[in-house]
Amino acid sequence: MIRIAYLVTRFPKLSETFVFREVLELRKQGAEVECFSIHPTLQEPLPAEARQLREETTYLWPPHPARFLAAIIKFAATKPAKFFNTLKLFWQQAPRSLSGKKRFLLHFLEGVYLAHLCVQRGVQYLHAHFANGPSSVALAASALSEIPFGFTSHAQDIYSDPLMLDLKIARAQLPLTISQYNRDYLVENYAAENPAKLRVHRVAVDLAHFDRGNSFAPNEDAPLILAVGRLVPKKGFIHLIRACERLAQRGINFRCEIIGEGPERAALQQAIAASKLEDKVRLLGAQTEVKKYLQRAEVFVMPCVRDESGDRDGIPTTLMEAMAMQVPVISTRLSGIPELVQHELTGLLTPPENIEALTQAICRLLVDEKLRHELASQGRHHVELFHNLEINTGWLLQNITRRVSTNDDDETDPVEEVPLTARVSKWTGKIFSGDMQLMFA
Asked: What's the CA gap between 172 and 96, in Å, rounded?
C-alpha cells in the first residue's frame, strides 16, 4: 500500500471540493493519504466528509515551534549541501522585491518542515494541487527528503501567479494540468524542451452522487437559472445579472439563483437592486450541498471571463457537476471550457462579456425543451467519459505507484490521461467526434 502526502494552500476548502474528493477516492482505491495544508482552513461551511478531513489535516503555518526548529537543524546538520543549495536556489529564483524574497523564503522553510514530517510518517510520494505556493513547498520538500513529487496546475497558478514553472516541470516526477488548453500554454512557455513529460489529468466528479435520475423537481413559479461559484470577477456573474435584466425587459418568465460567496457580493447585490431584479435574482451565499439546487434547475450558466490580472477559470468543476446532473449548461469560449462544453453538442458557448449573446443563449434554452434534453443527455455522456472520479483517480494512483516503484519519469507515455479503451469498457455508449479529438489531442 502506497503512502501519499497531499498538499494544498488551504485544505479542505469549499471552492476546491475536487481536491478532497480526489483524496477520498484515492483512499477508497487503497492508498494511504496524509493531508497537509500550508495555511489553516477558512471559516466556511463544509460537507461532512470535508469536516472529517479537516480534523486530521496537518497545517504547516504557523508551525509547531519545536518540530519546525528540529526540522531545520536536522536537514542543515545531516544534509548541509542539499539544504543550502536548495535555499540558494529559492533565493535566486525569487523576485527582487522584498515581498517576493520573503514569500520564497517562507516556501523554502515550509518545505523543510514538510520534508521532516513526511520522512517521519513514511510518505513515499508528495502531490501538490496548484503550481504556485503548494508546488513550491513540495519542490523544496522533495529536494531535501528525496521523496518524489508531482503537482496539478489549474488556472490562476499558471496565468497570474506562475512560480518557477519550468523548474518544477523539469524536476517533478508527474507534472499534471487539467486541460489541453493549459498543456499547450505550458509547453510553449515553460516546457518546450520536455513536452512529453507534462500530462493532462482532468478534474473529475462523483457520478454516483451527481446523478439526477428521476429526481428533477422544476421550480413551480418560474424556470430556474442556476449559477455556482466564488463571487469574484473572473466568474462573470455581473454579466449574468445584466442578461437577466434583458430577460425581464423582454417579458421572459424566470428566476435566477447564484450560489457562492466572495468579495464581489456587495457589487452584485447593488447591480441586482439597480436593475430592479430583487424578485427574480437572488444571491444565496455559500452552500455545502449544490445537488439539491441542481435538481430544480432548468439551465446552468457560468459566464466566465478573463480578469484584469490575467486570471481565468481552467474548467469550472460546477459545470461538470451540472452536466452530470443532466442540466443543460451555458458558458463562454475561454481557456479549457470548450473542451468540456462543446457548442451545440454538450452545451452552449458564448463570447466572454457578450451580454446579448448570453441573453439569447438563455432564451433559447428556456423555450426549446428538445434542445435542453439533447444537451443534457450528451453533457452527461461526456462527463461519464472524461470526468469520472473513479477512473481518473485510478489513473493517477497507477502512475504515482509506477513512479515510486521505478523512480522514472517515463516520458514516452501518451500525453492524454486515460486510454480510450478503459473509458469505453467502463462507460459504453456513443463516442462523438469531439470526444475523439480530445482523447488523442
From this structure: 25
- Mean pLDDT value of segment 428-440: 38
Residue that the C-alpha cell 450541498 belongs to = 289
Asked whether the predicted pLDDT for residue 429 surpasses 70, the reply is no
At 417 the pLDDT is 53
Q: Which residues contact 32 (CB under 8 A, 6 or more apart)?
A: 1, 2, 3, 4
395 Cα distance to chain centroid? 17
pLDDT band at 193 (very low <50, low <70, confident <90, very high): confident
Q: How far apart are CA 355 and CA 187, in angstroms?
A: 33
C-alpha cell at 153: 496546475
Between the alpha carbon of residue 430 and those of residues 307, 369, 385, 435, the distances in Å are: 37, 22, 10, 10
* pLDDT tens column, 56-71: 999 999 998 999 999 9
Q: Is-contact 287 45, C-beta < 8 A?
A: yes
Q: Is 224 helix (H, G, I), strand (E, B) or coil?
A: strand
Binned at pLDDT 50, 70 and 90, residue 387 comes out as: very high
Residue 205 is classified by DSSP as: B
Residue 265, classed as helix, strand or coil, is helix
Could you read off the pLDDT of 345-376 as tens digits, one per residue? Answer: 999 999 999 999 999 999 999 999 999 999 99
Domains of the chain: 3-200 (3.40.50.2000), 224-384 (3.40.50.2000)
pLDDT at 310: 86
What's this model's pTM, rounded to 2 decimal places? 0.91
Q: What whole-number distance in Å separates Cα of residue 26 and Cα of residue 33?
A: 7
The pLDDT of residue 217: 73
Going by C-alpha positions, the residue among 418, 354, 352 that lies closest to residue 389 is 418
Secondary structure of 103-169 in HEC code, one letter for each residue: HHHHHHHHHHHHHHHHHHCCCCEEEEECCCHHHHHHHHHHHHHCCCEEEEECCHHHHCCCCCHHHHH
Q: Nine-digit cell at 378?
A: 450528451
> 202: closest CA among 14, 417, 381, 435?
417
